[in-house]
Amino acid sequence: MKTLSLYHPNTIQTVLSDLDRYIESFFGDSSVLTTRMTNQIPAVDIQENEHCYVLDMELPGLDEKNIDVHVDGANLTIASKQETLEEKKGEEKQNAYLIKERKANVFSRSFKLPENADPQEVSAAFKNGVLSLQIKKRAEAQKRIIQINAA
C-alpha cells in the first residue's frame, strides 16, 4: 500500500545540526571541534492590499538599532548584525562560562520590489520583535474607479 508522507529536504543547517549532535555525543562539548551555524533566516509574511504591500519580519531579540533597511533601485534589503560581548582582557573573572552558545547573529535578506511598488514610499516600524514595512504602490498603478456620466 502506498502512503503519503511529508518531504523534509536536508538543508545545510539540519546537516550541520545533526553533525553537531553526533560529535557532542561522542566527544562531549563540540564547541572547539565544530562551528555552530548561527545565521538564521528570519520568517517573513508579505501581504498586498489596494494601496500597498505589507512585509512583516520576525526579529526576536533584536532592537531597531541593530536593523538596517535600505532600498537600492528595485531591491529592498533588510540586514542585521548582532555582536556578542567580548570578555575584557586583564580583568579578573568573577563568573566563568560553563557553556557559551550565544554568538554573533548576522543575516541579510533581499527582495525584488514589484514594478508597481514605489521605492520612495517605504516606511518601517518595529514593535515586539516584529519589523513591519509598508511599501506603497505607485499612484498610477492603483485601481481607479471611472465615473460613467449619463448622456
User: Number of DSSP strands?
Assistant: 7
| Strand order across the largest sheet | 1-2-7-6
What can be said about the biggest beta sheet? 4 strands, antiparallel
The radius of gyration over CA amounts to 23 Å
Averaging pLDDT over every residue, what do you get?
77
Portion of residues in beta strands equals 35-45%
Class per helix and strand makeup: mainly beta
Unreliable parts: 29-38
Report the helical percentage. Answer: 10-25%
- Please report the number of helical segments: 1
First and last CA, distance:
70 Å
Query: Tell me, what's the shape?
Result: elongated
SSE order, as H and E? HEEEEEEE
Describe the structure.
Strand 6 and strand 7 form a beta hairpin. The chain contains one helix and seven strands; from the N terminus they run H-E-E-E-E-E-E-E. It is mainly beta and 151 residues long. The strands form two sheets. It has a four-stranded antiparallel beta sheet with strand order 1-2-7-6, with no helix packed on it. The chain has a three-stranded antiparallel beta sheet with strand order 3-4-5, with no helix packed on it.
Summary, kept brief:
With 151 residues, this protein is mainly beta. It contains 1 helix and 7 strands, in the order αβββββββ.
Keywords:
three-stranded antiparallel sheet; mainly beta; four-stranded antiparallel sheet
Sequence-ordered SSE layout with sheet pairings:
Layout: H1 12-27, E1 44-48, E2 52-58, E3 67-72, E4 75-82, E5 105-112, E6 117-127, E7 130-137
Antiparallel strand pairs: 1-2, 2-7, 3-4, 4-5, 6-7
